[in-house]
Amino acid sequence: MANETMLDLPVAPSLGGTESVWIVQGGTDRRTTTGDIASLAGSIIQTLPVTEVTSGTTYAAAPSDVLIAIELGAPATFTVVVPLSSLKAGVYWIKDGNGTASADDPIVVDASGGQLFDGLPSVSITTPYGLVMIAPRPSGGWYILNFG
To answer: In which domain, by residue range, is 85 found?
Structure first.
């Protein structure tokens, strides 16, 4: 086994949380368990702040927002206005949370101050359950990181 690579090892059919995993932490080889990794991932995911918007036609995103889920009761055009990129420290995820977005009823993302999204004046979610992720551009405006 000394000359085998990780890809030569058999695949584990399932995980129970007690299996040992090799990691590098601070430049030092260490071991942990699959359960420890799952707990860490769970705590990260559970702390993602979600802002659910359930009514209206426009939402002004706060710099503290991260995931903005548009949960309208019926299909309708909806606009999310993000602040100046200089006010946001991280990404926005804007999501059609209940599948009502379409070409006829898009979720439109606009920016304050005429800022652009990779050169575009706005970004629209036009597919059910679609998502757009944007990040502030240091020089002003927004990067589109994911769109679909």
So the answer is: 50-147
